[in-house]
Amino acid sequence: MDATGFSTATATGENVFRIEWADVREIVAFKEDIFSYDEICVGFRVADEDTYWRVTEEFTGYTELLQELETRFPRIRTEWFKEVAFPAFVPNWTVLWGTPFPPEKRAAKNT
Prior knowledge:
This protein is 21% helix and 34% strand. With 111 residues, the chain is an alpha+beta fold. The protein has one domain (5-109).
């Protein structure tokens, strides 16, 4: 993380993606069912399309990123974990900040 955004990298240090704070349009939290357990994810939408870059609780720096989001995005929802975590094995898509992607565009894209 730095003043303008954050990056993710592979274990070997190869950059996977970079998100600039100023480009974020929406932040969501959700779960992915990984067969015998759930993985909590935070997704970032940076374009006017139904695509989210995700980080998971397994990423190095995940906790620090969540703390930084509270600073970078005023009025971000901070009491979301239980809403996403329970019940188990259900995505529980939850908007934390920003304008949700319009459902009518999502439906049109998937047809």
